[in-house]
Amino acid sequence: MAAALALVAGVLAGAVLPLWSSLPQYKKKITDRCFHRSECYSGCCLMDLDAGGAFCAPRARITMICLPQTKGATNIICPCRLGLTCISKDLMCSHRCHMI
């Protein structure tokens, strides 16, 4: 019986422990070093071309330059904050965050 309980506890611990990193209170803050956007509370792991590596950065605010989608582990430019859409109003201009 004790062995069965230990086995169940081990399985539950293995299933629960990986979830800790996905909780917001365990995410990295702005300026913390990162390797993947999922590590950051903001969801943006921005490449640092000067120092190498990457750091957590805030999402783009209204009228700031943005990228419409995020692919891969790190960002070149951060996506928009919640409630904003990354669009280009002119073919000659870069994408910016706007309320739609």
Weakly predicted, low-confidence segments = 2-20
Radius of gyration: 19 Å
Helix content: 10-25%
At the third CATH level, what is the topology name? Lipase, subunit A
**Number of extended strands:** 4
Largest sheet: 2 strands, antiparallel
Structural class: alpha+beta
Average residue pLDDT: 79
The best one-word shape is: globular
Q: Write the CATH architecture name.
A: Ribbon
CATH homologous superfamily annotation: Lipase, subunit A
Tally of individual helices: 1
> How much of the sequence is in beta strands?
5-15%
InterPro entries: Colipase (IPR001981)
Signal peptide: 1-21
GO biological process, one term: response to food
Subcellular location: Secreted
Describe the structure.
- It is found in: Secreted.
- InterPro entries: Colipase.
- One of its GO terms (molecular function) is enzyme activator activity.
- By secondary structure, the chain is of the alpha+beta class.
- It is built from 1 helix and 4 strands, in the order H-E-E-E-E.
- The strands form 2 sheets. Strands 1-2 form a two-stranded antiparallel ribbon.
- It is globular, with a radius of gyration of 19 Å.
- It starts with a helix and ends with a strand.
Task: Give a quick precis of the structure.
This protein has one helix at residues 2-16, and strands spanning 45-47, 54-56, 85-87, 96-98. The protein is α+β, with helices and mostly antiparallel strands and 100 residues long.
Features:
single chain; 100 residues; alpha+beta; Lipase, subunit A; 1 helix; 4 strands; 15% helix; disordered N terminus
